[in-house]
Write a structure and sequence with these properties.
By secondary structure, the chain is α+β, with helices and mostly antiparallel strands. It folds into three domains: 2-70, Uridine Diphospho-n-acetylenolpyruvylglucosamine Reductase, domain 2, CATH 3.30.43.10; 75-195, Uridine Diphospho-n-acetylenolpyruvylglucosamine Reductase, domain 3 (2-Layer Sandwich), CATH 3.30.465; 242-349, UDP-N-acetylenolpyruvoylglucosamine reductase, C-terminal domain (Uridine Diphospho-n-acetylenolpyruvylglucosamine Reductase, domain 1). The chain is built from nine helices and 20 strands. Strands 6-7-12-10-11 form a five-stranded antiparallel β-sheet. Strands 1-2-5-3 form a four-stranded mixed β-sheet. The protein has a four-stranded antiparallel β-sheet with strand order 13-19-18-17, with helices on one face. The structure holds uridine-diphosphate-2(N-acetylglucosaminyl) butyric acid. Uridine-diphosphate-2(N-acetylglucosaminyl) butyric acid is lined by residues 130-131, 204, 234-235, 245-246, 249-250, 269, 281, 283-284, 287, 292, 305-307, 346.
């Protein structure tokens, strides 16, 4: 297994931020990961940076800890039962290509999650979600390697502790959570249970509108095409304009807090949740503070979706991680001053 020194991470993060990995190793199998743990036990214990597609990452400088680039591929049908297709993919498979492939095999269920950047292995980490579906709705189980011991293990959905853009992989063991695996688990394979019979999920307003115009029950590929069109209209393509998707989570407030905000800003976009709390659209809050299109250096707020920060300097003079963080903090301050809400960042900052 080859350990490369001083590797540019610019092509390996979708923001396109310039930074170097002092040491980077590529793993292509579970056995590779276990060998790495045996050969470099110290580096594996010191919270290495596990890199998938680099689509949820802000690099604020060169990365001193070991960077492990996951390149485990492979996809297969594990089983078909009367109620599910059970499909598995290697962690290094590109997410969108995997979704596309499942549809081509006539195993629908992931179409609402089309075009999300990143890899299969990263998908459970932040429980990716879009257009009415979250990864946890289709997740079956995953295999991982404990980087501290080299042991392989399997987790089911309950053990992954999924929440909104959250899982056990985002928390360290000292958090008050059952199990914290941040910096410790390297996901090698993920399995998805795709329910039969397939039923379209068109609960997201724009999908519902498209379905109404369509007139009949859409096919899975049709929903996929709609989702791709909606995403392309709203969100920047990282290959064209560097970004890390939504930069902040949508905050949740109590009914009283929400009523207070509505009293001052009647147009605030809000969604009641089953537990009585209310989710607010962070993009709307940031937009209302006048941030759309504003920039700090080469880091800017996307002009069509205020929840997305972009690198407007391209590859030649990219935004620095510092600029991105300065902009993010200024946005947090301004939303706090106007609405009394602290926006939580979504990407991992290294
Ligand atoms: N809005 C504004 N101004 C803006 C942005 C949004 O007024 O600048 C309003 C919109 O008009 C809409 C509401 O805010 O009424 C919500 O916007 P949208 O439907 O685009 O969704 P979102 O809450 O901003 C979330 C996810 C996205 C996901 C979409 C669709 C988070 C943090 N983001 O965005 O996920 O694609 O819903 O389901 O939950 C990602 O995580 O990277 C991501 C793109």
């Amino acid at each position: 297994m080859l350990v490369e020194n001083s590797v540019s991470l610019q092509p390996l993060n979708t923001f396109g931020i310039q930074a170097k990995a002092l040491r980077l190793v590529r793993v292509r199998s579970t056995a590779d990961v276990q060998a790495l743990c045996r050969l470099h036990p110290e580096a594996c214990r010191q919270s290495p940076l596990v890199l998938g597609g680099g689509s949820n990452l802000v690099l604020t400088g060169d990365v001193k800890q070991l960077v492990i680039k996951v390149e485990i591929t492979g996809r297969r049908l594990v089983a078909e039962t009367p109620s599910h297709w059970l499909v598995e993919a290697g962690a290094g498979e590109g997410w969108h290509g995997f979704v596309d492939w499942t549809l081509a095999q006539h195993w629908p269920g992931l179409e609402n999650l089309a075009l999300i950047p990143g890899t299969v292995g990263a998908s459970p980490v932040q429980n990716i979600g879009a257009y009415g579906v979250e990864l946890q709705d289709r997740f079956h189980s995953l295999d991982a390697v404990d980087l501290h011991t080299g042991e392989a293990f399997t987790l089911d959905a309950a053990q992954c502790g999924f929440g909104y853009r959250d899982s056990v992989f985002k928390h360290v063991a000292s958090d008050q959570r059952h199990l914290g695996l941040a910096g410790r688990a390297l996901i090698t394979h993920v399995r998805f249970a795709l329910p039969k019979p397939w039923v379209p999920d068109i609960s997201y307003l724009e999908l519902a509108r498209k379905a109404e115009e369509w007139g009949t029950v859409p096919a899975p590929r049709q929903v996929f095409d709609w989702v791709c069109a909606i995403r392309r209209a709203k969100l920047p393509d990282p290959a064209v304009l560097g970004n890390a998707g939504s930069f902040f989570k949508n905050p949740t407030v109590s009914a009283e807090q929400c009523a207070d905000i509505i009293g001052r800003d009647p147009k605030v976009v809000h969604y009641p949740l089953p537990d009585g709390t209310i989710k607010l659209a962070a993009g709307w809050l940031i937009d209302a503070c006048g941030w759309k299109g504003k920039a700090m250096g080469n880091a800017a707020v996307y002009d069509k979706q205020a929840l997305v920060l972009v690198n407007r300097g391209g590859a030649a003079s990219p935004a620095t991680g510092g600029e991105v963080m300065t902009l993010a903090k200024a946005i947090q301050t301004s939303v706090y001053e106007r609405f009394g809400l602290r926006l939580e960042m979504e990407p991992v900052v290294v």
